């Protein structure tokens, strides 16, 4: 009888201990971010750190979120040797996230090569991009591109220099903004029928156009939930001698973009919606369309596309 009682008590104790252990494990899995420590960027506010890493204070923390924070910091090009180290917080279930990373002293260079589609023609831009980032969230980017041809059919090329200054508004009351300037030269192919030939005998010409312009962008994501960017963009286009059939004139755009995250726009690809209001003056070759001549156009465009560099 005594053995049965002892056995029952032992089983009861084991069940209680097992249930208690399971309860402890379940509680331990629910972790929250108490604070974020980033010695390399010690002067940033909690809001700025959350914006930079994607980790929110008092929000749940798991392995996937820590991996994403590390990826965001690495892909930004501002830091190297990034490590995310979770440490116990002041209370049970709270975690202090410590970020160890080295700020890049050498400018971050990106050697870019790929395919780009412009007005139906394919070109290969090859360039160098440089990012300079300081503690206040300022960025200086330049992009130098050299265009080339693909295959035996000349498709056109683009070469240019692009400069951008961006202020992400860390530790300031300013709205994030960016200023871009660019100068580029594009070689295009167009076809027309010389007056003394039939329509089947098309003659191709390669001419160049020079574009000089810039843009000014405001980021309103600090004061609204969803990222809102308003951009003023202007470009002046001039054609080389003999290229009067190409687009020439001035263009002024007012654009707004809706994006889910102000920082992710530079390090991740998102689909966004935009509404463009534009004005430009177009000059066409009278041999191609004699009745067109010079005209001015005002219009609007609504689109949804992946975010990317657009000068």
Structure overview:
The protein is of the alpha+beta class. The chain folds into 2 domains: 2-103, membrane protein fhac (Ubiquitin-like (UB roll)); 108-306. Helices cover 17% and strands 48% of the residues. The protein has 4 helices and 15 strands. A 10-stranded antiparallel sheet has the order 4-7-8-9-10-11-12-13-14-15, with no helix packed on it. A 3-stranded mixed sheet has the order 1-3-2, covered by helices on one side. Strands 5-6 form a two-stranded antiparallel ribbon. A hairpin with a 5-residue loop joins strand 2 (79-88) and strand 3. The longest helix has 28 residues, at 2-29. The protein is elongated. The C terminus is likely disordered.
Give a topology summary:
Elements: H1 2-29, E1 32-37, H2 46-53, H3 63-75, E2 79-88, E3 94-103, E4 108-113, E5 116-118, E6 121-123, E7 126-133, E8 138-146, E9 157-167, E10 177-192, E11 203-219, E12 227-239, E13 249-259, H4 264-267, E14 271-283, E15 294-306
Parallel strand pairs: 1-3
Antiparallel strand pairs: 2-3, 4-7, 5-6, 7-8, 8-9, 9-10, 10-11, 11-12, 12-13, 13-14, 14-15
